[in-house]
Amino acid sequence: xxxxxxxxxxxxxxxxxxxxxxxxxxxxxxxxxxxxxxxxxxxxxxxxxxxxxxxxxxxxxxxxxxxxxxxxxxxxxxxxxxxxxxxxxxxxxxxxxxxxxxxxxxxxxxxxxxxxxxxxxxxxxxxxxxxxxxxxxxxxxxxxxxxxxxxxxxxxxxxxxxxxxxxxxxxxxxxxxxxxxxxxxxxxxxxxxxxxxxxxxxxxxxxxxxxxxxxxxxxxxxxxxxxxxxxxxxxxxxxxxxxxxxxxxxxxxxxxxxxxxxxxxxxxxxxxxxxxxxxxxxxxxxxxxxxxxxxxxxxxxxxxxxxxxxxxxxxxxxxxxxxxxxxxxxxxxxxxxxxxxxxxxxxxxxxxxxxxxxxxxxxxxxxxxxxxxxxxxxxxxxxxxxxxxxxxxxxxxxxxxxxxxxxxxxxxxxxxxxxxxxxxx
Length: 425
Known about the structure:
The protein has 425 residues and is α/β, with parallel strands linked by helices. 39% of the residues lie in helices and 16% in strands. The model has no long low-confidence stretch (mean pLDDT 94).
């Protein structure tokens, strides 16, 4: 089977869960299941300067992984204006002649990229994984209001409150355009039941949504930290430092524990790239006010095990719905219970009282109380560690996706033949 994968970035340029899983799945299919193909990662001049003469650049040493320069992108309408650039990729993709096209994000590729691929490859099976809520929410898919409140879903009035400068027709055109483009896909994949249900509630057809879970690479679990006194009070947050990931909530919760005299430690693992000055000032102030917190900076994927070795708990303090955070799977891979918000895909992934603990989302006092309980309750950590089930690895995910592709290719072929037969009857 030949596959064409498209993502909005490559982990070599910027770490992110969507692109990490997409690339890991592509490599697992290639190395473990004998597929051939091409991984095309969109990029812009912010991450890699475009070279003269071509949209394509090498990334690393793999001949089947390439960067595609895709500037001229409209983030509100998810529209790619460089249709001439897209069309220049046609001969290469036609030579590949993929059986399956798998889109992992519409960012940079845009509606035009989807429409172009459908016309270029009429016989290919096309699938898309919905890794977040970008198709529902023009505020970067966060489904958060500007003042940080959770949004229950798109509506004309609610969206206008977030974008008062936009006309109502802009939201209608955005939705119609995206639904029309995504009709090109034979199936849509959701990594969580929560995200699938949100899309269905917003009017997307349930029969086109299929649940396939994310996965992480197989790895030897990092040994647990020695705790001679039995106290498990070392916490860690992993991921990019920003507002919607709840970094400030975690810092304020630690400061509260320190004020209450609760012994603990909190390590923040993640970079601060692309954050504005106002947020960085808040972050620095919150860090200075939390004496037990250490910011360890950005990290490479291969160092996760070494970093988590010093932690008893992984905290996921996100203030938005999340979908299927890879950090939770990584924590479970290394047999660390997770403390996370009580909403969305993170609450779906972590079973409260079984392999982790839920905290009220965005609530500093609530998170601090759960962290205190975690540190001070005898036997709780051991019981939760015993409840952790090993997460799926990339080879298992590749096998599940390959079976899905084959079944879909067969059924999609039947549908297309039926359409052609009706057209010529």
